[in-house]
Amino acid sequence: MRHGRRLFVLTFLLPPLALYAVFVISPYLQAFQISLTNWRGLSPEYEYVGPENFSRLLQDHYVWNALKNNAIILVALPVLTIVLALFFASMLTIGGRSGKAGVRGVRGAAFYRVVYFFPQVLSVAIIGVLWKEVYAPRSGILNGFLRTIGLDGLAKPWLGVPDFAFWCVLAVMVWSNVGFYVVLFNAAMQSIPREIYEAAMLDGAERGETLRKITVPLLWDTIQVAWVYLAILAIDGFAIVQIITLGGPGNSSDVIGLRLYDTAMGEYKFGYASAIGVAMFFLTLSVAVVALRLTRRDRIEL
Fold this sequence. Notes:
Layout: H1 5-34, H2 52-57, H3 61-94, H4 109-121, H5 124-134, H6 141-148, H7 162-189, H8 194-202, H9 207-218, H10 220-236, H11 238-244, H12 256-266, H13 270-294
Helix pairs in contact: 3-7, 3-9, 3-10, 3-12, 4-7, 5-11, 10-13, 12-13
């Protein structure tokens, strides 16, 4: 090992690096190349059109409509998910009554953790099909519940009305992600000494004030990571939208990931679709950098 350390390292590093280059980096580079062509994906023939595809992007109202929906998701999904996850995680950690055993979570906290995390066990396809049935106009659980409690007037074809379809999809995205961050924040809260919470409550601090002034600052690094991941997820949103609404009705729930897919697989414009993908790449990178900078704070040491 002492004499052949370099050879040993190269022997174990080169194969995985080569595989990564072939199957990850190479497709990215090919996408940049294809974005400069008019390739339709069905023949080896194509012409280089330069930046024409990117110029077309700026005038495509379907792309701008999808980006508008992505922008709303980019704001709403991280905020709603993190706020709900922090609330539920704090209830599981310090939400119970404090007594001789000190500050503790609500009764049955272990069971609630499993319930909250359950959506993570399901695949995206199952979640999409499940909620599509929940929103079904006649056989759906949501409308059935509203009719049962005498609110027939509120029952609607939720996924068939442009004013509601997008928000229904957003609700599913929040529901499917909250559980993971509840468990993540709950695990991070376990590292905070209980004496801090006990001292705050002895001083008369309310639970909301404790969450805002103690828990959030001490968990800020974890919240920052959650914000970046949710922001990246918000820019895509392809799977849930494609399964539940297909971007409809009237493109009201369209997102940029689905627009890329439809352009490539529906219209067979792989060159233009690659241009959309390249734009998504730089948009995602920019959002991640901005999110990291906006959420950057001085680290608090316990």
